[in-house]
Amino acid sequence: MSADGTAEQSRARDGDAGARIALAVREGIMAGEYPPGARIRQENLAEQFGASRVPVREALRQLEYEGLVRVVANTGAWVSRLTLEECEEVYQMRERLEPLLLHYSAPALDAAAIAGLAQLAQRISSVGADTDAFLALDREFHMASYKGAHTAQLSDLIEKLWNTTAPYRRAYVSKWDADSRKIAHEEHHLMVAALRDGDSEDAERILAGHIRRTRRQLARHPDIFDVESSGR
């Protein structure tokens, strides 16, 4: 094999390893295994995945682009963290931008897509106090509601905004009482009903209120943003 072929194979292996490492760290952050502010050590990831530093750096760059990690040149990488004020700003952005994305998406959601959303809403209503199940299904529900949109930047931006607030949503949802869970479930079902009726304007209104309520509730739990993370 030529030197060019060997180099190409090496790059492909690094790319595969980078994607695998990014997936594992992404899932770890979403699951709360890497809390906000936690140090992510490249040497530990390289050892854990049996990889060189090249795919580890690629993985961290990807996670930084997604808003999950902050990389400081020649220093290291940390899980992104927000202050309460920064989180409120992100939620205000979401409150205004996600209804716009739903506006783009709704006309392309056919009966099968809306039926899928209804099934997800029902599954969410059935998870009880299982925070992990709720967060996974809630994200799947909202992202599925945006599937009909074809945008140059908005979809990627909203996914990044979701990523940056994920650890704080986890802490907030874990504090929910039965009434809080019931309200969230009802809002999901109301969104589905509006979409089924072809009333995207009402669906957008419900979505904006859904996000606004979370923003206001997060502001009542400033302790969520005060936790200091040890390195790992």
Automatic annotation (TrEMBL):
InterPro entries: GntR_C, TF_FadR/GntR_C, Tscrpt_reg_HTH_GntR, WH-like_DNA-bd_sf, WH_DNA-bd_sf. Residues 15-82 form the HTH gntR-type domain. One of its GO terms (molecular function) is DNA binding. PROSITE patterns: HTH_GNTR. Keywords: DNA-binding, Transcription, Transcription regulation. This is GntR family transcriptional regulator.
